[in-house]
Amino acid sequence: MKRIFLFIAVIAVAIGCISAQKNKSGEKRQYAVYGVAFYNLENLFDTINNNGKYDLEFSPQGARQWNAVKYRSKISNLARAITAMTTKTTPGGPAIIGVSEIENASVLHDLVREVDRQLEAQGKPSWNLQVVHHDSPDRRGVDVSCLYNPRLFRFLDVTNTTLRIPDYESFRTRDQMCVTGILGGDTLSVIVNHWPSRLGGQEQSSYLREAAAALSKQIADSLWAIRPNQGVIVMGDLNDDPQDKSCAQVLGGQRKPDNVDPHGFYNPFWEMLDKGIGTLAYKGSWNLFDQIIVSGTLLEKNNPDALQYRRCAVNNFDFLRSTEGTSKGGPLRTYSAGVFLNGYSDHFPTEVFLVKPRK
Fold this sequence. Notes:
Elements: H1 2-15, E1 17-22, E2 28-44, H2 53-56, H3 68-83, E3 96-102, H4 105-121, E4 130-133, E5 143-148, E6 153-161, E7 176-183, E8 186-194, H5 202-226, E9 231-237, H6 245-250, E10 253-254, E11 265-266, H7 269-274, E12 280-282, E13 285-287, E14 290-295, E15 308-314, E16 335-336, E17 339-340, E18 350-357
Parallel strand pairs: 2-3, 8-9, 10-11
Antiparallel strand pairs: 1-2, 2-18, 3-5, 4-5, 6-7, 7-8, 9-14, 11-14, 12-13, 15-18, 16-17
Helix pairs in contact: 3-4
């Protein structure tokens, strides 16, 4: 009986959960539902120093005394957070998960193996998440990457684009990873980002994130030059909030979907932040850097019979929250003031839900 249950569960994941909902016109239709998530994994490093002084911190000899016990605990904690990303309409978890602050492909393979181990311990079918990784030129050696469930998302292609800043030859940051595949029968590209930090001050460093936003827009435009109707998602730790210049003006992420053209962008997390919900806390106030911004081609009004955006969420599960001190209610991070907290990340994961109408 257990085998039969697992087989049925796997089939349900493979075809996507069907939900009966009303569209904008009030017509009741059936939809397949898919989750697309992003998670900053907060310094997911192995214990081996491969990058000199930049990697020493995350080694047994470094200040954090980063050893195998702490590493395995970090992997287990992150896997718990990922396996919790299920809903009634997405029981098999997200179809796609963009991630940032990872050192190499090896740590991601450890992570996806732990995800399946925890699922199997719960009597649930494994997700068999696949890893798309690329080594970026970032000085600290951290990369962005993508995980996907092959039962839900059919991988087609990946490109990685380096952000270059004129008159700043020594500048190094994370490449932008564009993963393209088939979700719900439609072509979808996800551009995974970790834009330059606010080091030196928000205003003084804004031009770097504006350049990153311009690059994301350029990548999206190049995709539409080939397939004008395809969906595009820009996601990542953008180190800016939805209303900041990089997101709102350069990329053009709009607060409301009403006037978004097919090749424009709608940022559903703008209104989320307006409600006081964020993904990281700094000096007692919330920021929402971890955004998932959807193209106008993913809005029902522009493409009523195609894959389309339905809602968004900050996955601030109770167990991901700090329960004491000045950071109470915020993300329970791995370290704070040099003390190992055995937490998860200093960011909450985010997710959008896309639906595909059934004919």
